[in-house]
Amino acid sequence: MNKKTHLIALAAVAALVVVGVGAWWLGMQQGMGHATPANEQAVTSNSNSNSTSTSDDPSLWTIPQGEEATRRHIRESLKAGDVDPATGRRILNYHDPMVPGKNFEAPAKSPFMDMMLVPRYAGSDAADASSVTVSPRIQQNLGLRTVLVVEGSLVSEVTAVGNVAWNERERVELSSRALGFVEKLHVKAALDCVAAGAPLAELYVPDWVAAQEEYLALARLSGEGTDALQDAARQRMRQVGMTPAHIQRVVTSAQVQPRFTLTAPFAGIVSELMVREGATVMPGMTLMRLQGTRTVWAEGAVPESQAALLQPGARVRTTSPGAPGQTFEGQVQTLLPEVDAVTRTIRARVELSNPQGRLVPGMLVSMRLDRPKAATTLLVPSDAVIHTGRRSVVMVAEDGGRFRPVEVTAGLEVGGQTEISAGLQMGQRVVLSGQFLIDSEASLRGLEARLNQEPAPTAQRYTTDAVVDALSGDTVTLTHPPIAALKWPQMQMDFKLPPRAQQPRGLEAGDRLQIEFEMQDGEVPRITSLQRVAPEPGK
C-alpha cells in the first residue's frame, strides 16, 4: 500500500513538470510572435519618417528630420539667409529645441545637447519672429478672449474732497465817513444774520450839522445867483462824507439831519464787529465786515495727474454730510497755482450756490468735477493693455490663430476703458485675457516680440568706399580710406558680410565697393549693405 501511494505521487510530479515545460514553450513562441510585428512596425515607422523628411512644410518635421536637414545643410554649405533647394524656402536661423531663445546663423552641432541644431524657415508657422500661433483647441483651453477696437470718447469726472470757505468776493467792509459817535447798534454780535437794507448802526455826526445848516440857509434865500450858491453847499455836504441819500433827505425835509443810519447793502452775516454803542469813530475807521452767503467756495485737493483734465468753468456737483439728500451745483472757478509737496495735489477752487445758507465754512464736502468731453479716439478695455513700466503693449489677434505684441500709446482710463492714441486701428481684435500665457509661449520659442522686451536701440551706421583684399566665408578683408566719424585712419580690416542674397554676384578680390556698416560689441563691424563701384577712369 505504501509502495502504490509512492508511485502515484511520482506520477503527479511528473505530470506537473510536463505541464510547466509546455507552458514555458508556448509563452516563448507567443512572445516571439509578438516581437516580430513590433520590429516590423519600427522599420515601417522609420521608413515613413524618412519619407516625411521630404515634406514641403518644415513645420511638420520631427526633431530627427530637422537634424537630418541640418546635416544636409552642412554638406551643401548652406547657412542662414540661403534658400534651401529641398524646400524652396529661405533659412532664417538654427536653434536647439531643448534650449529656447538661442538662435544661430550656421548649421552645427548644438553647444548645449548631444544633438544637431534644427533649422527654422521663413514662411512656416514657427518661423515668424514677431508673432505666436495658438491652435483653436489651446485657445479654448486657455480661455483666450478677444475684443474689437472701437471708436468713442470718454466722459469722465474727477472726484475730490474739500472744505467750505466764505466767498471772499462777496465780502464788504463798512467804515466811518466822518468823526462821529455810535448812538445805537442794531447788530449786537458777530455772525448775526442781516437782510438786505436792514439797519446796522445809527451814528451822530456833528461835522455834518454845519454843512447842512449852510445849505438850508442858502435854500431860504431867493434872488439871482442863489442856485449856484446852493449847488456849492451840496458839494460841501458830499465832501464831508454825506451819502447822496442822506443829502436828498436834507433837501426834501428842509431840516438838519445830524444822525446817519448805516444799512446792509446785501443779505448776509456780520463776520466781524469792531464797535459798540457809545464808541467814538474816526474817519476811515472800520465799523464792521459783512459777508454774503449767496455763494461759497469749496477748495478740493485734486491729484496733479488729474488736474490737467480740469478747466475753469467745468460743472461741479457737491454733497455734504451736513446737508443730507441735497446736491449743490457750481463750477470750477480756478486751479490755484500751488502744488502741495507732500500730497502732490493741486487745490481746485469751486464756487457753489448756497441759496438756503446750508453750507458754512469748515464743512466737509465731496465734489464730482466733470471733465470736458474729449475728442473721439480709439478705445480698448483696460484689461487688454499691459503696462511694462516703460511702454504699454497689447496682444493683437490676427488671422490663422496668430497673436502679435504691439506697442501702443495709452491715454486716459475711465470706467474700464482706455484711450489709444497710436499703435492700433479700428476693427482690430486685441486679447482681453491670457496675454501672459501667449507671452510665455513666445519666451519658450525665443521670439523677438515679447511683452516685456524693450525695443532695441538703432545702431548708428557709417558709409565709406573700400577695396576687397580677401574673402573668407562670411568675412571680407577691406582697405578703406579715413573715416572721420570714427576717427579711423586709412587701414585694412575685416568686416562681416551681409547674407548672400544681399551680396553682389561674383564678388572677388580687387572689387571696389561702397559699403554701409554698423559697429558690433566684441565683434568685427557688420556690413548692412554694399554695392560695386565702377573703376576710376584710367585704372
Can you lay out the helices and strands and say which pair or pack?
Layout: H1 2-52, H2 63-75, E1 83-84, E2 89-95, E3 103-104, E4 118-121, E5 132-133, H3 136-142, E6 145-148, E7 150-152, E8 157-166, E9 171-175, E10 180-185, E11 193-194, E12 199-204, H4 207-219, H5 226-239, H6 244-253, E13 259-263, E14 268-273, E15 280-281, E16 286-292, E17 295-303, H7 304-307, E18 315-319, E19 328-339, E20 345-353, E21 364-370, E22 377-381, E23 386-387, E24 392-398, E25 402-414, E26 417-422, E27 429-433, H8 435-445, E28 461-472, E29 475-480, E30 491-496, E31 512-520, E32 523-532
Antiparallel strand pairs: 1-2, 2-3, 2-4, 5-25, 6-27, 7-22, 8-17, 8-21, 9-16, 10-12, 10-15, 11-14, 12-13, 14-16, 17-20, 18-19, 18-21, 19-20, 22-26, 23-24, 24-25, 24-27, 25-26, 28-29, 28-31, 29-30, 31-32
